[in-house]
Design brief:
One of its GO terms (molecular function) is transmembrane transporter activity. By secondary structure, the chain is an all-alpha fold. Helix content is 72%, strand content 1%. The chain is globular.
């Protein structure tokens, strides 16, 4: 389960990411609470607009951000994006403490955070594969999700307590401080131990990620499912905050609900780390489980019952998304991994600008339970799409010996992009044998003496 932690670079990354993610969840909780209670009068639609502005840039900038993640040194790129996020957190904290924050200003900061995150996310996702060998990539992705959800277990609850005790502004300043952990981890890494990768540049390469995915129907299905879940199902800030108000709870109750989601999320991430490889069937089953969990949330009679359903919700959604992420990483041509992951993150996060305003408006007009019910219906549709494709793909067969049992073929890594001439080197040319027709000899084909075995 924890085999990737035996690698020094990954171990340092894991610790730095854990601390930084705790701060990020604290800030996310505080930001949503500020919009809902300080800048508006419990307006869920305004929260939906804030989320839309923050998650729109990954979708709009996907071609550029993916190309940047593949073209430039990811370690240095992440240093730049983390530093920019640190400065934005400090600015937000100061404006809140001074009482100068307004709703339009918060909208502007949400957009700025989204632009920086659009470059940060694909670089961080692809960088995980630079830290470990190919056989450990799926495990590293799952442990990365575990780190994210361990932080989700701590961050929202800590933010809720801080908001009650000292106010929202200090939460943003604490988050700024946690970015130093990530920057320190990046400085401590051993660059010579990073997994070497090919780089291809040029504006003509921006569309390679789109073309690659278009040739992979399995990835198209994964992306469609992820988009539906991201657009309508991943609006936990809207669901949890409005349900907390419905049950008469404050900021601490809202933060605690987010931590209940994290309990299930952490369990899902750790179980994903135990699996040898990411499989399509797990994505389908996870989306179906998310539909069931959301349906249970709709009928929860009390705060405690609703919190209990969130454990199952967190487990199912992280099982789905972690497996989908690992599937994309381990079956994608490494040369295009950054661009494909940028497209994946754009689909996941970019669905929020579509779904969040709709979900927020539904919650404001008809109540949070109707909005959660909408998420359950969409999850059923996503599960149906995945199950239908799996059945029609030709990979589903009857078991050889058992009459009522079915088997599913495994997905193998697929490479459709041929090597480019820029991979050519004099060293390779000088050491690669050239076959000649019988009877012909060439002085250039004469074997050279080998040194050092």
């Amino acid at each position: 389960m924890f085999r990737s932690l035996s690698i020094f670079n990954y171990r340092v990354w894991f610790i730095g990411a854990l601390v930084s993610n705790v701060g990020a969840w604290m800030q996310s909780t505080a930001q949503n609470w500020v919009v809902l209670t300080q800048l508006t009068n419990n307006d869920a639609a305004a929260m939906g607009v804030t989320m839309a502005l923050q998650f729109a840039p990954p979708l709009l900038l996907v071609s550029v951000t993916g190309w940047v993640a593949d073209r430039f040194d990811r370690r240095r790129l992440i240093m730049c994006t983390q530093s920019a996020l640190l400065l934005l957190a400090v600015s937000l904290g100061i404006l809140l403490l001074s009482g100068a924050m307004t709703l339009p200003l918060m909208f502007g900061f949400a957009l700025a955070l989204g632009v920086v995150t659009a470059f940060d996310n694909p670089a961080r996702q692809a960088f995980v594969s630079d830290l470990v060998s190919q056989e450990n990539a799926s495990n590293a992705v799952a442990l990365n999700a575990a780190s994210f959800n361990m932080a989700r277990l701590i961050g929202p609850a800590a933010a809720g307590v801080m908001i009650v005790l000292v106010g929202t502004g200090w939460v943003f300043l604490v988050n700024a401080f946690t970015f130093l952990a990530m920057l320190g981890a990046l400085f401590l890494m051993r660059p010579h131990e990073l997994v070497a990768r090919h780089r291809r540049g040029g504006p003509a390469r921006l569309a390679d990620g789109f073309r690659y995915v278009a040739r992979r129907p399995d990835l198209v299905v994964i992306f469609v499912m992820v988009f539906l879940l991201g657009a309508f199902g991943m609006n936990f800030p809207i669901f949890a905050s409005t349900m907390a108000l419905e049950f008469g709870r404050g900021a601490d109750g809202f933060g605690l609900l987010s931590s209940f989601v994290a309990i299930g999320s952490l369990a899902g991430a750790l179980l994903a780390a135990r699996r040898e490889r990411a499989r399509m069937r797990v994505v389908v089953l996870g989306s179906g489980g998310f539909a069931v969990a959301s349906a249970l949330s709709v009928f929860a009679p009390s705060y405690g019952a609703y919190a209990a359903t969130l454990v199952l919700t967190g487990f199912c959604v992280v099982t789905t998304l972690t497996t989908a992420n690992g599937y994309v990483q381990t079956t994608t041509d490494p040369v295009l991994r950054g661009r494909v992951l940028a497209l994946y993150m754009a689909i996941l996060l970019g669905g929020t600008p579509v779904g969040a305003p709709i979900v927020g408006a539904v919650a404001a007009e008809f109540g949070p339970r109707v909005a959660i019910g909408l998420a359950a219906i969409v999850a059923v549709i996503a599960c149906g799409i995945g199950a239908t494709w799996t059945a029609m793909s030709g990979r589903l067969h009857r078991h050889e010996t058992k009459r009522f049992r079915l088997t599913l073929d495994e997905t193998r890594p697929i490479t459709t992009i041929a090597p480019e001439p820029e991979d050519f080197s004099d060293e390779v040319a000088g050491t690669t044998p050239i076959p000649l027709p019988p009877g012909e000899r060439s002085p250039r084909a004469t074997p050279r003496p080998r040194h050092g075995g």
